[in-house]
Write a structure and sequence with these properties.
It is a single chain. With 256 residues, the chain is mostly helical. It folds into two domains: 74 residues, Homeodomain-like (Arc Repressor Mutant, subunit A, Orthogonal Bundle); 156 residues, Tetracycline Repressor, domain 2, CATH 1.10.357. Helix content is 55%, strand content 0%. Helix 2 packs across helix 5 and helix 6 runs parallel beside helix 9. The radius of gyration is 21 Å and the shape is globular. The N terminus is likely disordered.
Length: 256
């Protein structure tokens, strides 16, 4: 998944292919004459990947899908990499917050059950796209896939704090919950025959303290308050705790 490389027979530059289309500033609508927009382009990309897989997605092929020249897409997305990030964001924000989940009188267990089933439904509805959500480097180093939307994480932390969790225990719950979802749903995607895309080496080597882009958390008070705590590295302790919990559960399941 490195950069904007576009595999396949049409892996050449989109700008070369479109050089004969002129430099008109008029927005080119698709076959149904609906004007282009970033939202429409991203939605079309998700539908394309659902049908044909991630490796088949190029700006040129997506332009053909929408009935426009590929260069028209660059007015709304900067390139394939920006398009992939838009797909992740649009997919994650489909998780309806607040009234869509547990109500004020429900416990935190009901909220986590609702959220977990919502993410799983998303993964099963779009198994070709979900591995992308799991492997794309997040916009902030402390956002953990698959809950990688600022609004989703703010809602998660706020719901738990409102139901009696301390700041520390809410952050620990976010880490444990996201790890559980990621491991189980990537395994489920693999069982459905989907290929998990490789992580870009540049992403793998990027320092955890260096965000990919500037992230403005001013409108998310809990994230602003807990950003330092969310950035702490407790991976080893979390692994050992999860392993011990698993061993305890297996022991309880042994015949007496």
């Amino acid at each position: 998944m490195g950069g904007d490389a576009e595999p396949g027979p049409d892996s050449g530059s989109d700008s070369t292919v479109d050089s004969g289309s002129g430099s008109s500033s008029t927005v080119e609508p698709g076959p149904d004459r609906t004007p282009l927009s970033r939202e429409r382009i991203v939605a079309a990309a998700i539908a394309f990947v659902d049908r044909r897989g991630l490796t088949a997605l190029t700006m040129r092929r997506l332009g053909t899908e929408l009935g426009v020249e590929a260069m028209s897409l660059y007015r709304y997305v900067e390139g394939r990499d920006d398009l992939l990030e838009g797909m992740v964001e649009q997919m994650v924000t489909r998780l309806h917050l607040g009234g869509g989940g547990a109500g004020p009188g429900d416990g935190w267990q009901a909220y986590l059950q609702w959220l977990a089933h919502g993410v799983r439904a998303l993964a099963r509805e779009h198994p070709q796209v979900f591995p992308l959500i799991a492997t794309r480097h997040p916009s902030a180093p402390w956002l953990r896939p698959p809950l990688r939307s600022l609004r989703v994480v703010e809602d998660f932390l706020g719901t738990l704090v409102a139901r009696g969790f301390s700041d520390e225990s809410a952050v620990a719950a976010y880490r444990a919950f996201s790890s559980f979802l990621l491991g189980h749903l990537l395994l489920e995607a693999a069982m459905l025959g989907r290929t998990v895309p490789a992580v870009d080496p540049a992403d793998a080597l990027r320092s955890p303290s260096t965000p990919t882009r500037g992230v403005d958390v001013r409108e998310f008070p809990l994230l602003r308050r807990l950003e330092d705590r969310l950035s702490e590295d407790h991976a080893s302790a979390e692994f050992e705790r999860a392993l011990e919990d698993l061993l305890d559960r297996l022991e309880r399941d042994l015949p007496q």
